[in-house]
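Researcher: Sequence of Dihydrolipoamide dehydrogenase follows. Predict its structure.
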Amino acid sequence: MKQLETDVVVIGAGTAGLSAYRNAKQSTDNVLMIEAGQYGTTCARVGCMPSKLLIAAAEAAHSVTEAPKFGVNTTAPQIDGKAVMARVRSERDRFVGFVLEAVDELPEQDRIKGYARFLDANRVQIDDHTVITAKRFVIATGSRPNIPGFFQAFGERLIINDDVFDWQDLPESVAVFGPGVIGLELGQALHRLGVKVKLFGVGGSIGPLTDPQIQDYANTVFGEEFYVDSDAKVSDMQQVGDKAQLTYIDHDGKPQTEQFDYVLAATGRVPNVDKLGLENTGIELDERGVPLADTHTMQCGDSHIFIAGDASNQIPLLHEAADQGTIAGQNAGRFPDVRNGLRRAPIAAVFSDPQIAMVGESFKQLNERYGKCGCFAIGEVSFENQGRSRVMLKNKGYMHLYAEQGSGLFLGAEFIGPAAEHIAHLLAWAVQNKMTVPQMLDMPFYHPVIEEGLRTALRNLNARLKFGPDIVQHCMECGPGA
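Model: Prediction complete. Tokens:
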């Protein structure tokens, strides 16, 4: 067994791991990075980038379908599934290639392949070939799809989103379980590319939304386009020949039995920490076996072990993984000089159509923090009659903004609508800069733009905070359809 000693070991070479490695290197040259699987981040291989490639194809097809509404008549789009998937795979591989190039630039002696397991708080064993003794560790092992056991009844017809991006052609039909970010994005995209899609969920939730009114609106909007049941009753799951068969209660309360080419399980992800031997380290774990870590330092208790990215089970987004990796790497490199790192305002987006976005504190978090004291106000706007949105036939959307009573401090937002990914950035900057609603209303708004809908919601919120008058309907100084 090979024996090595070093200052810092980073377990995992994804977004968080690469960030941790580079930042630990700022304090010491003695950093080793361990990776068991293929190099290339979750985002590049099976996450945000290939999914957006599929969505881009779906948007192109949908724009042709919608063209007659503008008086632009054309034939129905002809979907070449093989060409669609060839571009998805090709561009996906290109993005992965960028990551691989970055990894190849790292010193070869710093990279070790294999599965790591803690022998104790200062030693990890890599497969059956190496034991490394280190002074500090960063756990950045990512996550994997969570597939409930009963889905195994579908046999080889069961897939996860990773499998979708290796398809050579589009199937005829897919049942999607899980109307969260992945399920909603892929389900709608496949539907727009001509695949028969039915999307099933449990409990009525859709996307990451927690605000009941925004949830209801989202369920209605997506349900108008394709079959969505976010609180489904499904039974009799099995593989029949080369099909997946299931029985469900439809919207009319009648049982339906259907067969699909595939069942896509988009039922969440779990941190890859269960095989690390964390019980040998002495650090405190939660009920799921995930290390408890300080969100500002990424330190596990007062130990020399840090955690970052999806493995931390905090916020599973690429930019958060990069930030956490930076904090964990810096602190592991200069330990015991542990410092708080920059944690940005929370921001999340779903690239459906209409898009979904959440910023700052969610409705659920605010209710838990403020209770029923009425200490926060809600401003709202519908995008259905918003001028610029109607011009583009993108006028589906509903927004809630939240602010603190008394101070007027802007706290967060949940919304569905056009350009949500861009509006979310404006709102996240407002949260991070601790702006009040009156200060936000002092910012410039051009005409005609979708952001005028945001201004309407801010004015509504300002009135409910009692900082200004009620909204003037049909305010012509704002421009028509503002």
